[in-house]
Amino acid sequence: MIQRAKIDATSNIVAGLDINPRIISAANRAGCGSSWNLLCTSKSELEQKTGLSGSDVDILISAVAKYLLPKQISAWEMLEDTDYNIPRISAGCSQLDQFLGGGIPSYGITDITGESGCGKTQLALQLSLQAQLSPNHGGFGKGVAYICTECQFPVVRLHQLISQMKKKFPQGPESYTDRLFIHHISDVDNLLDCIRYQLPALASRHQIGLVIIDSVAAVFRAEDGAEVNKPQALQMLGYKLHQLSSLNDIAVVTINQVTASINNKNLYGMNSDVTPALGLSWANLVTTRLILSRCSSYIGALHFHCSDDKGKVEPHALEKSYRQVKYRLRMLEVLYCPWLPRKSVPFVITTHGLENIDPNTVSTSYVHDS
Q1: Distance between alpha carbon 241 and the CA centroid of its chain, in Å?
Q2: Residue 355 to residues 168, 234, 260: CA-CA distances in angstroms?
Q3: In this protein, which residues make up the domain named RecA family profile (predicted)?
């Protein structure tokens, strides 16, 4: 296994190289002290800028490449090294966290796909609030960049979840909206510009721990038939998102849509009439793919219902203060992930957000659609 060193591409590294001081001085005088300047400049340009010979430039480039080369590390060392453990954002639901191995990682791209109304945006909103909590409560203690590409941002639902978060975590942020940066984008070019220029600038000014694109397929579907090189644009998008995640320890979550599948069993082995949008061009760029779905079953629960605005219930009316409610059962499935097997877990969405199916509070009987 290899462990990649976290090095700022713009910082001066030549001073730490084990090479002739004369070469180091020449590189510094020419303003070529960073790994970015050295490795992104041709050999002839370096010779011209530094005044060094071709052999000296070869020595310089080789030393920089060796310095940046990931160091070998065993799997046991990775397990024992707490600094290497990948931070994760809690999904706000203990069953989902356990299912995902701790939550959504700050590594690579996590693609969440599913049909309309299955809960993708609900999960994205919950993650955007969880990320702002301290690490002790399953967050990063950082801000969130939320890129919205379709319809309006669900402000009402966001404030509902914020009110629930403040009750659940009174020691959390005073304002969840101060560190939630929302940007509306409707086309591919603006999305790429945002990922290439605006997001890195935002991450440098504010501590950003999570980037959400809701949804990644909408901008490409909106330009079907237009003069857009879709594979190239997807490749650039994926590369820049991976780069952003790697250099800044940012979790990247993309919300995806689905398309009709001709065969009942699609290329992922799913017995379904739908398949994730954007095809293999995007599938090969994401690290983890999760799929959300709505079941045809409902699950019953007893919820406490207050009789007045102050929440007070008379003792004689206590037994009447509970009402039966039904929640549609939903499933979260891992399609592929480097560290998780293919599996699924049920959950429900309530006014509190995504919640466990708790056998102590929820009845085990299912009511099927007629």
Answers
A1: 10
A2: 13, 34, 29
A3: 85-258
Residue whose structure tokens are 């219930």: 313
Note the pLDDT tens digit of each residue in 257-287: 988 766 655 555 555 677 888 889 899 999 9
Angstrom distance (rounded) from CA 259 to CA 224? 14
Beta strands (DSSP E) in 174-222 are 180-184, 208-214
Q: pLDDT of 56-114, one tens digit each? A: 999 998 888 888 776 676 767 666 665 557 889 999 999 999 999 999 999 899 999 99
Integer CA distances (angstroms), 341 to 201, 285, 335, 344, in order? 36, 19, 8, 10
Q: Going by C-beta distance under 8 Å and a sequence separation of 6 or more, which residues neighbour residue 209?
A: 89, 106, 131, 139, 140, 141, 142, 143, 144, 249, 250, 251
54, 47 contact by CB (below 8 A): yes
Q: Mind spelling out the 3-state secondary structure of 215-239?
A: CHHHHHHHCCCCCCCHHHHHHHHHH
pTM of the predicted model over 0.85: no
Q: β-strand 353-355 against 344-350: which pairing, if any?
A: antiparallel
pLDDT above 70 coverage of the chain, percent: 79
Instruction: Tell me the CATH number of domain 88-293, given options 3.40.920.10, 3.90.180.10, 3.30.70.20, 3.40.50.300.
Output: 3.40.50.300
Q: Write out the two tokens for 358.
A: 């708790």
Domain ranges of the chain: 2-71, 88-293
Fold of the 2-71 domain: DNA polymerase; domain 1 (1.10.150)
- Hey, what amino acid is at 5? A
